[in-house]
Amino acid sequence: MRSITFPGAVALAALSFSVGFPGVAQQRAAAVEENSAAPPYADMADLVIASPLVIDATIRSTAKIKPAEALGVAPGATRFYVEADVNALVRGPGAIPPRVGYLLDAAPDPLGRVPKYRKSRVLLFARPVPGRADQVQLVTPGAQLGWSAASDALARRIVGEVLASDAPPAVTGIGSAFHVAGSLPGEGETQIFLRTADHRPVSLSILRRPGEQPRWAVALSEIIDDSAAPPKPDTLLWYRLACGLPRDLGDDSTASLSATDAAQAREDYRYVLERLGPCRRQLNGGSAPG
Known about the structure:
Blueprint: E1 3-4, H1 9-16, H2 41-50, E2 53-65, E3 78-91, E4 99-106, E5 121-129, E6 132-138, E7 144-146, H3 149-163, E8 171-181, E9 188-196, E10 202-208, E11 215-219, H4 236-242, H5 259-276
């Protein structure tokens, strides 16, 4: 495998990989079998949301970047300049060249061997390089995934959800919480209003009746009506809540409530988190890309 001095590699490397190197181990495998499972929904959503470009490509060639130009490369990792032929543009503002180049940091395999990627089919999660139509930047060091039918289908589904006109907004925190006790012991309703990135209204409601399981729902408008329901797992609304909600209902959200009502609101909030389940991630060290 040849080693090259890639024009602009130093500047591009500093821009592409300044976030550190969680996920570099994901680049050990040269390819993923077509029947391999997709990564968890949260991992794929992290990548899709962060990526103006999602590309189905086949790697045409790789060349090692000289160590002197591989600024910030993780210990033991190798930086490559990769050229890949575009099979399909899964997400993007328009057409891109039929071949693109990018930088990739790869860790050695368990036997210490440098990975070989030539002819591997991959999914790239990237951003354009200003002034270089034929170059892209991976949004994280782990943003090249081996292609599989399942991963491709999940990426395309999430792209559709993200670009939909009614896509739910990102949750940035919790506003006020309210609780109204019913006339019977154990009866009551809690409403929790969420803060969102674009200030659109999102709220949670939890209804308790004696002898029944609590019922909860999420509303994406000012009005909570009979159509409100819990989100389906592994959807963008589920992701916004399961991965965006804080783990506790803060004291500022219940400041206007009595101690009894505040305690009930916190219990109802914990119930919502339990029903949502964990925001499970495997890639990028278990954290969303910035």
